[in-house]
């Protein structure tokens, strides 16, 4: 029988589930979660193989299996918030576990991350190189990815340092988990499915993001006909780190029903 995922719960109120991105863990959300927990019940969850669940392995690290495990661990009628790769997991839960999703928030995420003809995104060679580098030095590969994430940010050094300090509070993933989850980032394509979402959706972006560039936003706008969106003009891939106050205000305004337009 598959072991259940560990979760951390803070505060009371509407459940907000925070799902981290590739290579990192729930520690990345510690500052944000402490603020949100003043008004909401915040649920921090590490994907299998990461953070507090680094001991849990999957023979088949598929989108469906990871989503199922996360869905099993969270309450019904949660606002599911996913950052980067976590946005794919959050979206898939919203699509296939509708009892769990009161709403969906994606942070610098995309229904498909890889650049191809007529679709902007991450150069596939970068992801291919990461697969090779993971076999040689996983820690160095994560550090390289963090620098790419922060690229474009006016506070790149501070952002990378802050992220490292937060994620180092939890155990590191194995090279195999990193490789398997990188394949998710590389292969999952939800572009043809997101129009089926019937719950409220809020998409958040960074104008200076090199992983989810602004050209992606325009393409995704065509897929989400009724979703709200907001772009942090001077942020890169982690606006909840680099622009914490603005991020918190915008997110809470959307949750409470205030009009968001930017």
What's the arrangement of strands in the largest beta sheet?
Answer: 1-3-2-4-5-6-7
Could you tell me the strand content as a percent range?
5-15%
CATH fold node name: Rossmann fold
Task: Please give the domain count.
Answer: 1
From the alpha carbons, calculate the radius of gyration and give it in angstroms: 17 Å
Helical segment tally?
10
Largest sheet: 7 strands, mixed
Q: How many individual β-strands? A: 7
Mean pLDDT: 93
CATH superfamily: Alpha/Beta hydrolase fold, catalytic domain
CATH architectural designation = 3-Layer(aba) Sandwich
Helix content: 40-55%
Looking at how many chains there are and whether they match, the oligomeric state comes to: single chain
Poorly predicted parts: none
Task: Please render the helix and strand layout as text.
Elements: E1 7-10, E2 15-19, H1 30-36, E3 41-45, H2 63-73, E4 78-83, H3 85-96, E5 101-107, H4 124-136, H5 138-150, H6 156-167, H7 175-187, E6 201-206, H8 214-223, E7 228-232, H9 239-242, H10 244-255
Helix pairs in contact: 2-3, 4-5, 4-7, 5-6
Short description, anyone?
The protein is an alpha/beta fold and 262 residues long. The chain is built from ten helices and seven strands.
């Amino acid at each position: 029988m598959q072991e259940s995922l560990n979760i951390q719960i803070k505060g009371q109120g509407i459940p907000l589930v925070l799902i981290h991105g590739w290579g990192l863990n729930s520690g990345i959300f510690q500052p944000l979660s402490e603020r949100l927990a003043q008004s909401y019940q915040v649920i921090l969850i590490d994907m299998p193989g990461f953070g507090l669940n680094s001991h849990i392995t999957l023979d088949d690290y598929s989108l469906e299996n990871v989503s199922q495990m996360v869905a099993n661990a969270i309450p019904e009628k949660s606002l599911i918030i996913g950052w980067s790769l976590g946005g794919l997991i959050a979206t898939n839960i919203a699509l296939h576990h509708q009892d769990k999703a009161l709403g969906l928030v994606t942070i610098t995420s995309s229904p498909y991350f890889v650049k191809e003809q007529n679709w902007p995104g991450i150069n596939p060679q970068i992801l291919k190189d990461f697969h090779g580098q993971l076999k040689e030095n996983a820690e160095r590969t994560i550090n390289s990815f963090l620098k790419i994430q922060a690229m474009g940010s006016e506070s790149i050094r501070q952002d990378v340092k802050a992220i490292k300090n937060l994620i180092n509070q939890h155990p590191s993933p194995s090279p195999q988990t990193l490789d398997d989850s990188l394949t998710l980032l590389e292969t999952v394509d939800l572009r043809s499915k997101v129009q089926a979402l019937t719950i409220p959706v809020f998409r958040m972006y960074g104008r200076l993001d090199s992983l989810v560039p602004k050209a992606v936003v325009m393409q995704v706008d065509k897929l989400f006909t009724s979703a709200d969106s907001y772009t942090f003009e001077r942020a890169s891939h982690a606006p909840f780190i680099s622009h914490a106050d603005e991020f918190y205000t915008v997110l809470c305004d959307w949750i409470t029903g205030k009009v968001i337009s930017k």
